[in-house]
């Protein structure tokens, strides 16, 4: 009898300490530049799949990857570069079979009209916003372009670091900087800033957005269903509507 009571107490303790998994919940960790796209697609999916609830976390891809590595809840990860997906894959935190490309983008420089027309004009500016290259792919792409153009040393003291590409655009919108490196899709949403020039593609890798299921996502039927939905026709249509390149 005593052993039975001990067993029941142990089961109760386990039940109380176990992390609850709620049916219908899908945790998304997504690059900040995809916020409007994922908001629209997740709303559409939820309308046709009653009971599915999305919990969304937007930010710099590196920051999101580190959060997932530290145990933050995530069923689907969408990065703004291949590097951070490969990083989590190497840590065995992503389902390798589910990795695929969601879309593509282009790097531009946005700011107030007349500030600059090419990379070489940036030497005349005082403050330039850029996503932190250590965690923000847009910043990493921009730094690579500046190095290949031979401008990184001349501009290093003028760079204002942002925690993600949306913060970079915000600085440009408010006039707190002369301009910033952002994605074309972000700049198209700006109210004050304008695209001043497109960064030559030969200076940086193609902006690729890979996505994958995490370990918990593989066991979540709703997450797998939403990933398949993102690959479908509606996903492509919404991406095109927001200015993203076709995959």
UniProtKB/TrEMBL annotation:
GO molecular function: metal ion binding; molybdate ion binding; tungstate binding
Gene3D superfamilies for the chain: Periplasmic binding protein-like II
Domain of life: Bacteria
Keywords, alphabetical: Metal-binding, Molybdenum, Signal
Segments traversing the membrane: none
UniProt GO BP: molybdate ion transport
Sites where the protein binds molybdate: 33, 61, 138, 165, 183
Signal peptide: 1-23
Subunit structure: The complex is composed of two ATP-binding proteins (ModC), two transmembrane proteins (ModB) and a solute-binding protein (ModA).
Similarity remark: Belongs to the bacterial solute-binding protein ModA family.
Alphabetized NCBIfam families for the sequence: modA
PANTHER family linked: MOLYBDATE-BINDING PERIPLASMIC PROTEIN (PTHR30632), SULFATE-BINDING PROTEIN (PTHR30632:SF0)
Protein name (Swiss-Prot/TrEMBL): Molybdate ABC transporter substrate-binding protein
Organism of provenance: Geomonas silvestris
Name of the coding gene: modA
């Amino acid at each position: 009898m005593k052993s039975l009571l001990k067993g029941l107490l142990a089961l109760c303790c386990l039940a109380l300490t176990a992390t609850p998994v709620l049916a219908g919940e899908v945790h998304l960790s997504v690059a900040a530049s995809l916020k409007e796209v994922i908001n629209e697609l997740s709303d559409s999916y939820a309308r046709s799949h009653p009971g599915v609830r999305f919990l969304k976390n937007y930010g710099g891809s590196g920051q999101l990857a580190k959060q997932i590595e530290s145990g933050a809840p995530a069923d689907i990860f969408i990065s703004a570069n291949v590097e951070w997906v490969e990083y989590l894959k190497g840590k065995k935190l992503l389902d390798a079979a589910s990795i695929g490309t969601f879309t593509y983008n282009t790097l531009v420089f946005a700011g107030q009209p007349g500030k600059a027309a090419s990379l070489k004009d940036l030497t005349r500016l005082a403050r330039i916003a850029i996503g932190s290259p250590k965690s923000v792919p847009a910043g990493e792409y921009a730094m690579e372009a500046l190095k290949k153009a031979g401008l990184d040393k001349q501009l290093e003291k003028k760079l204002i670091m942002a925690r993600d590409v949306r913060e970079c655009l915000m600085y440009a919108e408010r006039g707190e900087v002369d301009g910033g490196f952002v994605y074309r899709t972000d700049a198209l949403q700006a109210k004050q800033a304008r695209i001043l020039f497109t960064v030559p593609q030969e200076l940086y890798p193609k902006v690729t957005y890979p996505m994958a299921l995490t370990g918990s996502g593989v066991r979540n039927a709703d997450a797998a269903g939403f990933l398949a939905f993102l690959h479908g026709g509606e996903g492509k249509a919404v991406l095109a509507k927001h200015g993203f390149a076709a995959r």
